[in-house]
Amino acid sequence: xxxxxxxxxxxxxxxxxxxxxxxxxxxxxxxxxxxxxxxxxxxxxxxxxxxxxxxxxxxxxxxxxxxxxxxxxxxxxxxxxxxxxxxxxxxxxxxxxxxxxxxxxxxxxxxxxxxxxxxxxxxxxxxxxxxxxxxxxxxxxxxxxxxxxxxxxxxxxxxxxxxxxxxxxxxxxxxxxxxxxxxxxxxxxxxxxxxxxxxxxxxxxxxxxxxxxxxxxxxxxxxxxxxxxxxxxxxxxxxxxxxxxxxxxxxxxxxxxxxxxxxxxxxxxxxxxxxxxxxxxxxxxxxxxxxxxxxxxxxxxxxxxxxxxxxxxxxxxxxxxxxxxxxxxxxxxxxxxx
Length: 338
Ligand SMILES: NC(=O)c1ccc[n+]([C@@H]2O[C@H](COP(=O)([O-])OP(=O)(O)OC[C@H]3O[C@@H](n4cnc5c(N)ncnc54)[C@H](OP(=O)(O)O)[C@@H]3O)[C@@H](O)[C@H]2O)c1
Known about the structure:
With 338 residues, the protein is of the alpha/beta class. The chain contains nine helices and 15 strands.
């Protein structure tokens, strides 16, 4: 075990797109676990779009990260020392202990993982928070029906990839929107969406008309901005818009003018936002449904793994620019199970 703890701290609040100068990467003290705690060495750190909100200083549904504090994040790791009867050295665990190599975590904040059930990293992606987001949002709000058209933005990403595959399993036709030809090829070829449109294409509206000849019944909103502007007028009567996120607007200094919401009335649309953390009680049901699909290969996932905590700030900025291709993770140390 090393005697230093590598950490990424928030140095200042970014204006617009974050830069690496907004973060400090430094050695910190090695944590010492107290009674009822375990010392955990991180293996994978999850980088997620919500982190942009946490560093903005604006209070929303969660508290922002303080200046000088360790960046917040979910980690999969291994117990190296335990002072709690429920955990032993060598146990694999999941918890929210931030952008750092080691952490002393209260046992009640840890969930044990079985690497024989699924690769450890999936607890941060397809079988973790992003997968649960897709599962509950589509089930509760989208409600895709056989033969309907479901459009999914950021379709190759952690949430979008699961949304489209679950929509297909419900008998709907999934149409993806993603950045670039490689991602679109993956969305169509690997994930089996009926079509995928590059959001950088010259006329997004015309491309949507070609890909969705019967209009759009469900729109899974991950990005906002120009994509939302193109999709919104193409929603069918009684369409559903699942408001999951609007990553294209997270770095805007002021809010953009919104769509004309008169159509919500005319078309009897249902638009509903949701936050996955309200749905934690459904994690066991979600895993029981989706883990067998992942294990048998019927539900595919892709990870984009960056090596080393020091690269986390740059990788996070890449996530906000679409550089990641699949669920973005940082490998903090070797995964003994791979
Ligand atoms: N409501 C909730 O509880 C909840 C929970 C989890 C996630 N979310 C939201 O779900 C969305 C997807 O999250 P994720 O974890 O699955 O991330 P992800 O899709 O794995 O990665 C983010 C992707 O967003 C796309 N993107 C970034 N900037 C864009 C822009 N300006 N225009 C269009 N697309 C852009 C990029 O893909 P392309 O290259 O394909 O554009 C990028 O790869 C985010 O908005 C996130 O905030 C919400």
